[in-house]
Amino acid sequence: MIVGTAPCVNDTARLTINRSLAPFAGTSATVAACATQTEVDLCAALGSGAGEGGTWSDINGTGALNGCTFDPSAVGNGTYAFQYQITGTPPCSNASATITVNVGSGADAGDDNTLTICGAETRFSLFEALDGTPDQGGAWSDLNGTGAIVEDSLLNATLLPPGGQNAFVYTIEDPGCGSVQATLLISTVDYLMGSARSPW
Predict the structure, then answer these.
(1) Which of 22, 72, 101, 184 has the least C-beta neighbours within 10 A?
(2) Which of 104, 134, 168 is the last residue of a domain?
């Protein structure tokens, strides 16, 4: 307000300011996924506080994006980028964040197998007994607690009770897929002078 000098009256003016909140699209990030997964939540990968109502762009044109859900199994191994954008209200500019997904085939623990071996074996390779194409670097578990695993993947069959099945599980921890496992079910039979001898 400005005070007027008589005979002029006081004068006032009003200024109205409209404030527009700047949009926040979240934080760009890189995540790992397994090629066998069917759903990766890209919205969750943006982090906390990301605004709603934005749009996703499939930068690499995978065709595997539905809303904010990406299906790695539809595209296989590779690196794929997706941009999330929220339109700003002038004078605020648009906001965007990019989620990059590294899709790997995942670790392979091989396939389950059931077999009977000679009870005289002292260094039987559990790893070589797995079916399929297992990857190295996993760990073995002796589910029956026989104590027959003597070194890494070597089995001393003389410590196993003859006849019954004993379970040994091979586990690989994969950053994209979690734990992958394969199981060996092993029975032993005694052999005497080249001829089979019944364990019973």
Answers:
(1) 22
(2) 104
